[in-house]
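Section 5.1 Outputs to date
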Amino acid sequence: MLFLISVSAYCQEKKGIWFELDGVYWEKALKQTQSIAPEKARFGGGRFFAGIPLGKSWSLGLMGSHHSYYEPQETGYTNRSIYGPPAEDGNSYSIVGIARDPVLVGLQNELVGFGLFLQKSITLGERTSVNFNLFSMRERGANAKLEFYPDYSYLFWWPCLNCLSIVPGPFLIPVEETNWRTGLDVSFSYALNNWVDVGLRANFLEFRKQIIQKEPMISNHMGQPNQFSVLGDIYAGDYFYFGSAVPREGIRISLTFKPF
């Protein structure tokens, strides 16, 4: 209780606790050569900040995030047997070769994260300022899915008028995703009045560790491994990224509230 009273008194002396919301949403059409393929990449979500002033231009606080995305992955490949003419008994076919077919792959997920941030604010004018946020956070999404779009163009050579109605896709493989992120946000703010600022925010520089965990191998009704579950093993594991997150997340619009 004494700690809360002390923090409250300190915040009132230093302009008080402030809150900020930012958000972004974008879609981008994907150019594909296959008839059955993912159509759009997308990213959307928002973040929440609650900061306590530390001196005149510094703040420390908590942050939370919620966002969803669909992101194309590197093209995968599966092997398809090529059969020769039927045997003399007419009941079997010999394999004369193996074809390597491309598979378009996408990853979709919805992530929730929490973390800490330290902000430095630099006043430019009477109403404008530039803010630098050093942050660290953890995100997790347990409902991620890898989508696999096989290339069915080889079916077009078959005289089947109903093939387009029976071709399945995409094939979905469940995975889990965890992100550890540390980076630097840069924002430009304009004060509408004494207690509301509007601004633009960008993730200028970031280190991100992405962990993709795949479910155990899925088998078909005959007990054979599902080829897309096997292919999904290639996309599981740890990935590391360093650089600007603007190409992936875009520019965010922010609102800052200073009620105290």
